[in-house]
Amino acid sequence: MATLLWPDDKSVQGGLDIMSRRRRVISELANGKNLAVQLQDLLQNGLVGNGSGLAREIIHEILRSFTDCLFLLSSAESGEVCDNGGSKDSDLASKKRSADSDSKNRRGCYKRRRGSETWTELSRTTEDNYAWRKYGQKEILNAKFPRCYFRCTHKHDQGCKATKQVQRAEDDSEIYQITYIGVHTCKRNTRLSPQIITETDPWEELSGGSKPRTNIGHGNVHVHVHVSAEVKQEHLEDTLSDVTENSFPSLGSIFDQQVLADACQQLDYLDSVDMDAFMASCIALDGVGDYCEGLL
DNA sequence: GGGATTTGACCTAG
DNA sequence: CTAGGTCAAATCCC
């Protein structure tokens, strides 16, 4: 599914026309469907050799495909183009050069970006398959832990406006609430192959320390409905409700939440999955793709 | 030396 | 007025 070429920043920010968007959605869905079929074949033949790793890669691509489709569809619905921050200088160097009056007066000039392209995940890891650069940390009122602010590493070289905020959950400090704001418009070459979720202490990483600074991820499934194996079912259901009811209101009816929940859970438990159930999940996801395609 | 992080200042939205 | 989001100089680290 690496076949989807993300447009450059301008084309996204300027808004894709309906036909382009439609073509991309169809392309993504077709790709997802093909991958689901590949996965089905793979599973029918048994996961011998490195089949398990391959299956995992295919799964991640399928999930990413649906994620991208949802983004395309949701932004088409709302008609919004998140051009926030457009008033900001995008060129750090020129900002420095223009110095003094101008740049200093503009410091802090920004628009808050919380809009329809915002969603929240609960996860035991702060990592995902993107490269993030931390740009701030704030103590939040009545919050036990500070909130950390990340922007895409490619903000300047590719104009990617994606940001995320990471905050430890109050009640369960093992869980991180990750709010993603904006869609990645950078090219996907920064993404790594999916990897296994690790048990490292992400907060230690956030707070500095000797670990690598670039948050290039482990397999924190990049789908709105990410579920790490340890997150409880109610978290999953909350997230699903949030996604379908708030982020994609008119898409909500497409998804049988339980079907998706089961599917996602099965995908995360690949190692110990019941193959029949897993196959059913793949078919369910494939069905979602068919349904979307039918709508277009 | 260059890229990433830290952190106080700055600014806006509510 | 204040909480929260961002900037950017200083600092860290490879």
Automatic annotation (TrEMBL):
**Subcellular location per the Swiss-Prot or TrEMBL entry:** Nucleus
Please provide one cellular component term from the Gene Ontology annotations of this protein. Answer: nucleus
Q: Which organism is it from?
A: Trapa natans
- Report the protein name in the record: WRKY domain-containing protein
Compositionally biased spans, kind Basic and acidic residues: 86-105
Asked if the Swiss-Prot or TrEMBL record annotates the protein with the keyword Nucleotide-binding, the reply is no
- Highest taxon of the lineage: Eukaryota
Q: Which residues form the WRKY domain?
A: 127-184
Region of interest (Disordered), residue spans: 80-108
Where does the sequence pass through the membrane?
none
